[in-house]
Amino acid sequence: MDVGLIVEDREDARVWLQAVLIAAFPGIRVDMAASVKEALARLEGPSPAIALVDLGLPDGSGVDILHALRERHPTTLRIVTTIFDGDQHLFPALRAGAQGYVLKDQSRAHLVQMLQAISEGVPALSPSIARRLLGFFAPPATEPAHEALTPREVEVLTLLSKGLSIAGVAEVLKLSRHTVGGYVKEIYRKLGVSTRAEAALEAARRGLVPIEG
């Protein structure tokens, strides 16, 4: 690996992650950015071999950087390094193209080992994140009966899964925003979720809508 990119707003965390990258890949040159703006400016240059991206940045979300990396530099290994382990952060990051998701509360030695394993095709996932993913996609031993979505609710969910807003769904289906909002509330209740990302993933897991690449 020739160049690595660290996107992190805290100086102490940047220094720590730089030491991790150098220990994992001796000889690597490390570039740093402290904001979304700085990171996007650095992406105008050559592709980094690996990018460690924090999610909580002062001028936006690291998810925007993941999108940009996937579009502009598809060969870059995109690893989230964060303190956030909730589904509301994990799933949007994965959908944006993250190939690894590690928590910064791990030891330096452990993180070095995880990054080195990338060269062998092992995804960089903190143990708690791996368990969360397995738990989300693995059905329980006895799958409980689910309240079925109506055809209209499936239609609304499909459009939401494609990234449309409630206003956008209302325009496509020629319904009022209030009506679409009611459908969304029912969809969340029936699927047992609380966010659009969770709804899309749960619907895909049940085969209600396709998973888009």
TrEMBL record:
Domain Response regulatory: 3-119
Modified residues (4-aspartylphosphate): 54
InterPro entries: CheY-like_superfamily, NreC/VraR/RcsB-like_REC, Sig_transdc_resp-reg_C-effctor, Sig_transdc_resp-reg_receiver, Tscrpt_reg_LuxR_C, WalR-like, WH-like_DNA-bd_sf
Domain HTH luxR-type, residue spans: 142-207
Keywords: DNA-binding, Phosphoprotein, Transcription, Transcription regulation
GO biological process, one term: regulation of DNA-templated transcription
Any GO MF annotation of the entry: DNA binding
PROSITE patterns: HTH_LUXR_2, RESPONSE_REGULATORY
Transcription is among the record's keywords: yes
Lineage top rank: taxon: Bacteria
Record-given protein name: DNA-binding response regulator
Species, as recorded: Melittangium boletus DSM 14713
